[in-house]
Amino acid sequence: MHVLQISATVCSFISLLLLLIALGSDYWININDVHTGLWRVCSQMGCVQIGMNLPDFFHTTRAFMLIGMIAGAVSFFALCATFFHFQLGSISQAKIAAVASLLAGLCVMIAMATFTGFSGADITYYGWSFGLGWASFPLYLITGFYYATRVFMLMGLIPGVVSLFGLSAILFQCHIRILSKAMTSAIASLIAGLCH
């Protein structure tokens, strides 16, 4: 189990780091000697801050990237808390980390797809910051699925037990009144297989 925790934490840290670098750097778009980020435009003459008078897709990209960064930080700190067995009420750190990672991945995907879709026709060269933004998206999903898999494996126990009782009822010729014995065990086995 420690291998799963360590790999999920490392993956969360890398995805958060990539997202922070993508947010803070100015190499989203490269056109000749000018490179642009979400916050500044830089050339050989220097850098100029980008104000608020921009197309809406810039604001959408900024907002979803910031929400993704916050969710990614929550995921990372929740994963770090699993090592110290820190409990926040009855809330599981694994569930917090999984939901926050999946939320961060969804927000980053929306931000990157919005930026790509609205700037794609005019842009000839995307920069490395843009690539790092896209790279953080699947890493957040991988981090979320690490712990979502753990939750689903535990959820698979319940239908598995129902399936075991259904099969034993068939073997011992007991009567199940709600559904047929075969149907009960087949449905429970299918659900257990999907959750596992």
Compose a concise summary of this entry.
The protein has about 200 residues and is an alpha+beta fold.
Describe the structure.
This protein has helices spanning 2-24, 56-83, 93-119, 128-155, 157-171, 181-195, and strands at residues 29-31, 34-36, 40-43, 46-49. The two termini are 16 Å apart. 69% of the residues lie in helices and 7% in strands. It folds into 2 domains: 2-148, Butyryl-CoA Dehydrogenase, subunit A, domain 3 (Up-down Bundle); 158-195. Strands 1-2-3-4 form a 4-stranded antiparallel sheet, with no helix packed on it.
The CATH architecture of the largest domain can be given as: Up-down Bundle
- Uncertain stretches of 5 or more adjacent residues: none
List the domain count as a whole number. Answer: 2
CATH fold-level topology of the largest domain: Butyryl-CoA Dehydrogenase, subunit A, domain 3
State the end-to-end CA separation.
16 Å
What is the beta-strand fraction? Answer: 5-15%
> What is the CATH class name of the largest domain?
Mainly Alpha
Helix proportion: 55-70%
Strand order of the largest sheet: 1-2-3-4
The tally of beta strands, per DSSP, is 4
Order of helices and strands: HEEEEHHHHH
- The number of helical segments is 6
Write a concise keyword list for the protein shown above.
6 helices; Butyryl-CoA Dehydrogenase, subunit A, domain 3; four-stranded antiparallel beta sheet; alpha+beta
Task: Record the SSE blueprint.
Elements: H1 2-24, E1 29-31, E2 34-36, E3 40-43, E4 46-49, H2 56-83, H3 93-119, H4 128-155, H5 157-171, H6 181-195
Antiparallel strand pairs: 1-2, 2-3, 3-4
